[in-house]
């Protein structure tokens, strides 16, 4: 087996396990007891938005930061550790696997969140400028519409557009562009039930 494949496989395992850390789930256990499962309430997800709705602002802020770092950490490892760089492809593997870890965490039966913050963390490492632009559009959409899901979807769309533009202007590499297209596309797919409720006018506002 070539060293490149070994490097990418190792990066995949590290990123997936890192992404699988179920901060929102554990926060519920910490505050409400061992029999409490946050996935039984609200959106039935473990992300910061559901933590906000079910446990409050303080716990949500903590989960927000942890979920963001679940994308930042693996992306930094893939960028800064030569053995896991994978000739530039490590960042793609790191970002996607961290996202999948958050959405399908091995520690709690593969039922997690939608991956918005974890994906955003990887985006922050790849392109702080695209991150900033997407964050502005996300925040503006949420403030205007009061729909967190719509803001997340809009932010993902902005990220995809930005990735294409930045690649053809030479500001990011091919693996980076693919990450900034595939990850947001997955997040949008994971919001398919929200999209259905938005269209039907039944989505819950923040």
Question: Mean of the pLDDT scores?
Answer: 97
What structural class do you assign from the helix and strand content?
Answer: mainly alpha
- Ranges where pLDDT stays below 50 over 5 or more residues in a row are none
Count the DSSP helices.
Answer: 10
Gyration radius from CA atoms, angstroms = 17 Å
Determine the fraction of residues in helical runs and give it as a percent range.
over 70%
Count of individual beta strands:
0
Shape category: globular
Percent of sequence in beta strands: under 5%
Distance between the termini: 49 Å
Q: What is the H/E string?
A: HHHHHHHHHH
**Biggest pleated sheet:** none
Architecture overview:
- The chain is mostly helical and 206 residues long.
- The chain has ten helices and no strands.
- The protein has helices at residues 3-19, 23-32, 48-55, 57-80, 90-103, 116-126, 128-145, 148-168, 174-190, 192-200.
- Helix 6 runs antiparallel to helix 7 (128-145) and helix 7 runs antiparallel to helix 8 (148-168).
- The radius of gyration is 17 Å and the shape is globular.
- The relative contact order is 0.13.
- The model has no long low-confidence stretch (mean pLDDT 97).
Any chance you could write out the topology, listing elements then pairs?
Blueprint: H1 3-19, H2 23-32, H3 48-55, H4 57-80, H5 90-103, H6 116-126, H7 128-145, H8 148-168, H9 174-190, H10 192-200
Helix pairs in contact: 1-4, 1-5, 2-3, 3-4, 4-5, 4-6, 5-6, 5-9, 6-7, 6-9, 7-8, 8-9
